[in-house]
Amino acid sequence: MVLIARLHKFLTATVDEKSRSRTIFWLTLSLTFAAIYGFLGIEQAFSAEYVVQDDARQHVFWMMRFVDRELFPNDFIANYFQSVAPAGYSTLYKIAATIGIHPLFFHKILPLFLGLISTYFCFGLCLEMLPVPLTGFIASLLLNQHMWMTDDLASTTPRAFIYPIFLGFLYYLSRSSLLPCLGAIALIGLFYPPYALVAAGILVLRLLCWKNGGLRLSGDRTNYLFCSTGLGLIFLVMLPYALDKSEFGPTYTTAEAKQMAEFAPNGRNAFFRPNPVDFWLTGRGSGMFPKSLFTPVTHCVALLFPLLLLGRSHFPLAKQIQSKIWLLLQLFLASSAMFFAAHATIFKLYQPGRYTAYSLRFIVVLISAIALTLIIDGVGHWASTTATKFHFKNIVALITTAIIAVAVVLYPCFVETFPTVGYVEAKMPALYKFFEQQPKDILIASIAAEADNLPTFSQRSVLVAKEYAVPYQKGYYSKYRQRVTDLIRAQYTPDRAVLQNFINQYGVDFWMLDRNALSLQYIKDDRWLNQFDSTPEARLFLKQGKISALASAMTSCAVFQNEILVVLDASCIVKLTGS
Prior knowledge:
This protein is mainly α. Helices cover 57% and strands 6% of the residues. Strand 5 (443-445), helix 20 (454-457) and strand 6 (461-462) form a beta-alpha-beta unit. Helix 2 runs antiparallel to helix 6 (103-129) and helix 21 packs antiparallel against helix 22. The mean pLDDT is 91.
């Protein structure tokens, strides 16, 4: 009984002046695990020479302009992704490049530091809601496991910054620390603007309180101070985005998007799904609940939280739960409001699911940690107060605590590939070096999958690539779509004049093809190609046995080739087909 009592006291001790060392111990342990996970991620990132996070191929490649201003001259795709990059995000990479840190190197090491900052704020926020250091440790551990089992953090795209910055906002708001809270709000607007609107919603909701059986205006002047200053700052931060007259806008309307194959159920950016459950609840982009919400599965413990509260008499620590936990309800309501607002204004506020995805993850992490702490407290209290010697109840308490410890701490050991963060290893170093040796202003035409890697590893422009098919803004995607349509038509047409006109119109210098690219099966197997208007025509040519005008150049104009693909000199193609 003494052993159980001591273990119970150690694990469930609350925060006070005398327990500062205990808090430091659990925080240090939390940061240690965060560092371990971070280094495991870095190990993957540097496992080979040509490794990059999947989404970083969109958001980081253009930043090599910070290293060499001559890269990607007049590049339509690079210009677009530079234009949509939040100011704080691009500035951070620019500062790193200025002091000699290459963008590709920076994107690989940054997740470690973002993870550590997220851990600190998650730990502190959890203690504001239940002042038990163990709870902070569990929450930070669950958060880190989630971050390293999904690709948000490792992508180091703008959405990676929502973890440390928004958790920092919630932490300082819960502590009523005005200036740090305003600083966090500014950073949200600079790095991930959509969530500045969620922050605004939270500030407004804090002006309301439940009193005498109904909603009343809050009597706390602090809430009014935070709301007025916070909303003012959000207005200033968001104003440049509202006034921006980008050449790549506007966004597609709902009616237009519903007619596009890209947003159909089988499209690359599927959004409009016929099943209401998929569309509103679980669909990527459109649904309220992300499929990774209960990743890792230990997050499912959050579902027990209401039951634990109903039986709070058996869980003494339930009395220690602070009123600040209502911040999680405010977060949910604000995120839900933005979710429906985004649905009402399709794509103008970006994907609706983004507004609830991260909020729900934060809520589930914190509630899971509190629930696990209450369970540990409950079984420990039950055993230590009713047992007189080491017998069955003590064993149950120890086993329960041990199971929770193993499930929480050792969970990654049971995952086949941890961390699972979406790093891509490119397999054609000779190809990347070949293009890297060419002039910096070349343009490469290709519908091959390998084109996705060329801007990142060769720092050369591509006419199109599947990775850059982002169909939200009409000014960008209508031109991008036309490029793909023209490229498919030129690649499969038997008409030499069409091929020559395409090369001259776009100023193509090289043409890269998979070796089997001119076959009917190649088109049939590529679902992405079948979204474009010229694909049926190409399929018809191949079915009729017509030979592509490009076929004659496959051998005589080849300047690079391997067992998978061939690179053709465009000027050679023009000469050959013009003769």
